[in-house]
Amino acid sequence: MAQKNRSIEVTQVTQWEDGTADRVVDYLAAEEPLEMRSGRFSLGITLRTPGDDEELVAGFLFTEGIISRREDLVALRMPSNTDAARNLVRVTLNSNLRLAANSAARRFSAGSACGVCGKASITQLRRRGLRRPKAATLFDPEMLCKLPPRLRETQTVFRRTGGLHAAALFSVTGELLVLREDIGRHNAVDKVIGWAFLGGCLPLDGHVLLVSGRGGFEIVQKTITAGIPLLASVSAPSGLAVQLARELGLTLVGFLRGRRFVIYSCEERIAVSASAPVGVF
Question: 154 and 168 in contact (C-beta within 8 Å)?
Answer without folding.
Answer: yes
